Amino acid sequence: MKIKKEQIVELYHPLLDGAENFPYEAQLGEESRLWPKNWYIECTATLAAHAGSHVEVPYHHLLDGDDCAAFPVENLIGECTVINCLGKEPGEEITLEDVKKVEGTIEDGDIVFLYTGYDQYFRKENWQPYPPLSLEALDWLLQYHPKIIGTDASGVELTDGYDEEGRMHELFGEPVHVKCFKNGVAIVESLTNLGAIDGMRTTVFVLALPMQGMDASPARIIAIKDL
């Protein structure tokens, strides 16, 4: 199968050294040489599992759940349905009515991405508030056995108010996460550029690192669209 450059849509934020909401720092290793005629470097990174655009797997909330190394790679690749949820206020739930807009086009086993437009706040001071996914909407989506549920906002979890700095308190126990993970559904947070694939079916690859003992992984997430 030949894929043209014009078919590839990048749905991830690149990781910027020292600029992420979760720690990411790149360092030169001790063996690095910066001589112009003998340039050679070995880099190391301090990297939080939830830095940038990332995928969360069952180990995040389930002691016996698959970690990033064990989570099936075939569950990180698939056809994608985008649900347009634009216009939501921070803390305003994505409802059953919202997700049922794709009734008749969503297919069993799809990857589902929630298009909120909140990627515009990524790396900004008020990056964290987001529209959560209601349990009623989640239950409706789960009947289609999605491989992944993702959002271009910073999260999908139900909330319990805000702190003095405006950060949302996610509901104790994180029921959206737990229900997804118990059904083998991964969660992707902090996507971007979903408007480029809104209204079309694409094939999505969530290219996560297979890291043992990790509950999440930054990921290069791309969609392949038909021309």
Structure description:
The structure is a single chain. The protein has a single domain, classed as Glucose Oxidase, domain 1 (3-Layer(bba) Sandwich), CATH 3.50.30. Helix 1 (96-99) links the parallel strand 7 and strand 8. It is mainly beta. It is built from three helices and 14 strands. It starts with 7 loop residues before the first strand and ends with a strand.
Question: Characteristics of this structure?
Answer:
Glucose Oxidase, domain 1; single chain; mainly beta; about 230 residues; two-stranded antiparallel ribbon; 7-stranded mixed β-barrel
Assign the CATH class: Alpha Beta
Strand content: 25-35%
CATH fold node name: Glucose Oxidase, domain 1
Rounded mean pLDDT score:
95
Task: Please state the overall shape, judged from the principal axes of the Cα atoms.
Answer: globular
Number of DSSP E strands: 14
CATH superfamily: Putative cyclase
**How are helices and strands ordered from N to C?**
EEEEEEEHEHEEEHEEE
> What share of residues is helical?
under 10%
Q: What is the CA-atom radius of gyration, in angstroms?
A: 18 Å
Largest sheet: 7 strands, mixed, barrel
Q: Count the helices. How many?
A: 3
Reported CATH architecture = 3-Layer(bba) Sandwich
Spatial separation of the terminal alpha carbons? 14 Å
Overall tally of structural domains: 1
How are the secondary structure elements laid out?
Blueprint: E1 8-10, E2 24-28, E3 33-35, E4 38-40, E5 43-47, E6 54-56, E7 77-84, H1 96-99, E8 111-115, H2 135-142, E9 148-151, E10 159-162, E11 168-170, H3 175-182, E12 186-189, E13 202-208, E14 216-224
Parallel strand pairs: 7-8, 8-9, 9-12
Antiparallel strand pairs: 1-14, 2-5, 3-4, 6-12, 6-14, 7-13, 10-11, 13-14
